[in-house]
Amino acid sequence: MIMVSLVLVITHALNDDPRPYIVGVAMGANSGALMTFASGIPTLMVGTVARIPYWQFLVVSSPLALLSRDCLMVIGGPKQRTSTSYQRLQTLVRESCNPVLVV
Questions:
Q1: Rounded to 5 degrees, what angle do the CA atoms 29, 68, 79 make?
Q2: According to the 3-state scheme, what is the secondary structure of the chain?
Q3: Hey, where are the domains in the chain?
Q4: pLDDT digits (tens, 9 = 90+) for 71-99
Q5: Closest CA to 78 of 35, 1, 14, 34
Q6: What pLDDT is stored for residue 102 in this prediction?
Q7: Are 35 and 61 in contact (CB under 8 A)?
């Protein structure tokens, strides 16, 4: 929820369509949730009912999570950003943050 809010604020400031970014956030969160018991309720339920040790679950699920992440990076995500969009984003960050904190 926090990441989606951040995506909405940034895309609104850049006058960009937030939908591809929100899909990317959702897919990234889903692939990360495959990794451990503590990452989500479904994995916790599967591990508890099956009585799988934590390390064994991690060993089995890690390749799936990494494959999911790699597929997301290769086929998913929004279009390539232009340098103008990046400069607008830098300007937005500089204007909204304390000047001492911005490098």
A1: 75
A2: CHHHHHHHHHHHHCCCCCHHHHHHHHHHHHHHCCCCHHHCHHHHHHHHHHCCCHHHHHHHHHHHHHHHHHHHHHHCCCCCCCHHHHHHHHHHHHHHCCCCCCC
A3: 2-96
A4: 776 665 555 555 566 677 667 666 665 55
A5: 14
A6: 45
A7: yes
pTM here is 0.55
What is d(CA 41, CA 44) in angstroms, rounded to the nearest whole number? 5
- CA separation for the pair 36, 57 (Å, rounded): 7
94, 102 contact by CB (below 8 A): yes
CA dist 86 → 6, 10, 32, 70 (Å): 16, 11, 27, 24
